[in-house]
Design a protein that fits this description.
- It contains nine helices and 15 strands.
- The chain is of the alpha/beta class and about 300 residues long.
- The strands form three sheets. The chain has a seven-stranded mixed β-sheet with strand order 1-7-8-9-10-14-13. Strands 2-15-3-4-5-6 form a six-stranded mixed β-sheet.
- Helix 9 links the parallel strand 9 and strand 10.
- The longest helix has 21 residues.
- The two termini are about 25 Å apart.
Length: about 300
């Protein structure tokens, strides 16, 4: 049985801090990190130059094919604190869709998702390709993905730094339980675990971990969904057992021996991709399934991550 935490406030109330930040960005023409000059450089210099260079050396089309070849990464994780009834519990994480920026990605995911039967599926943000502009192209493609998922306890999601607040309402209408600084309780065989979700800590900075954990017993098994891995210190201090994030794309372009050109997160490099540990907390930062800047990937396949939680 899944017991979704009873909301003390409506979704409309919960996204008010994000809406206030959106209004500030629109009024000033700046985000907390970027202004018009950044977007001009990215749109008119960086992207065209990168695409031209990769096309000139014959690598662009291969990068697009790579971006349309998702893989499933299966990871068993052992926890001495995991309740016995959840031994073998399967959790599927999908992140960084940027689904309106990679034509054909939603359709490529359908057969992959059809082969999986997790106990629960979680989305860790970034549904839109750009971090500004319309979200209209996001919704029909996300519906294709949501309809292809078969998860016993449903789908839970958070917002990322590319998402407008309106995305939360659209996904809830599709059947995704959005956790905006909230938590959900999962009960099975008399035992329970919790999944908490915070709003974006990277650009919008609307995360509220204490609010997300309100009412969650301190000694319970807790999974945190946070778009970026940067909350690792606070999460460990709150007794989080498993921290799931994305945002970094693992660099998206990874060079042999060197690794990613850009990490895009204020945290130890080891925390920006793959499995990591911080104190007694286990973390995983996925490379995600979508792309930013251009619909290409090199040495960094789009991944869906299927965790098998084990006691011991």
């Amino acid at each position: 049985m899944t017991e979704f935490a009873v909301r003390q406030r409506s979704l409309a109330d919960l996204v008010q801090p994000r809406l206030a930040v959106e209004e500030h960005f629109a009024r000033t023409g700046h985000t907390y990190r970027h202004g018009p000059s950044h977007y001009f450089f990215e749109d008119h210099i960086l992207r065209p130059t990168l695409k031209f260079g990769l096309s000139a050396i014959g690598l662009y089309k291969q990068g697009v094919r790579n971006a349309l070849s998702p893989v499933v990464r299966e990871i068993p994780l052992r926890f001495p604190t995991l309740p016995a009834a959840f031994d073998g519990f399967q959790l599927l994480q999908i992140s960084d869709f940027h689904i309106d920026g990679v034509d054909g990605l939603a359709e490529a995911l359908v057969p992959v998702l059809g082969s999986l039967k997790p106990d629960v599926c979680v989305f860790t943000g970034d549904y839109r390709f750009e971090d500004r502009g319309s979200c209209r192209e996001v919704y029909p493609r996300m519906r294709v993905i949501v309809d292809a998922i078969s998860a016993k306890h449903g789908i839970y999601g958070i917002l990322g730094n590319h998402d407008a607040a309106e995305v939360a309402f659209a996904l809830e209408e599709m059947g995704v339980h959005m956790l905006i600084n909230e938590s959900a309780r999962f009960e099975q065989g008399g035992d329970a675990i919790w999944i908490a979700g915070v709003d974006d800590p990277f650009d919008y900075r609307c995360d509220d971990l204490p609010a997300a954990l309100m009412g969650v017993p301190a000694d319970s098994f807790k999974i945190l969904l946070a778009h970026a891995p940067e909350l690792y210190t606070a999460a460990a201090a709150q007794g989080i057992d498993l921290y799931l994030s994305g945002h970094t794309h693992a660099g998206q372009i990874r060079l042999p021996l060197i690794g990613p050109i850009k990490n895009n997160a204020k945290c130890p490099r080891a925390y920006t991709f793959g499995l990591w540990k911080h104190g007694g907390m286990t973390g995983y930062t996925t490379s995600g399934i979508g792309c930013s800047a251009l619909p290409i990937r090199y040495n960094c396949p789009p991944e869906l991550v299927l965790f098998r939680l084990l006691r011991g």
